[in-house]
């Protein structure tokens, strides 16, 4: 009869575990912040395209909303997922956030330092949304930051999964010893 393994798992505090802990904390905090900003925009302007400056902007917000929900599912279930699966999911999340941030960046004329300009300096469809400049810039910034953190998590998981170490050269591989 097999006895149950009674050893308990302990947390180890090393550079790797602290880096992953800090990364997951920042991912969760920024994901929740982006959820609030994107949800505010979608709630304020509704579900029809007439309320938005462009269809592409509304679709970019929808993509970011999906990305945020996907990210929350990853973050809340990551203690039960393997490192390999986290690696795949973090790459997928990075693609989603990078695409969403790129769409918002391309469609919205608002950039980081342009929020103090008068509304007349923006393109015609975006003039009514000039007061939303700081929120749209914050959405872009958080989406790019989440893209970067998921890329960091992806490479961290890849390096954790693949071990790089020096191996001795077997005799006879390059030459024969006589």
TrEMBL record:
Arranged from A to Z, the UniProt key words for this protein are:
Membrane, Transmembrane, Transmembrane helix
Q: Which residues cross the membrane?
A: 18-39, 59-76, 83-104, 136-159
Top-level taxon of the source organism: Eukaryota
Question: By what name is this protein known?
Answer: MARVEL domain-containing protein
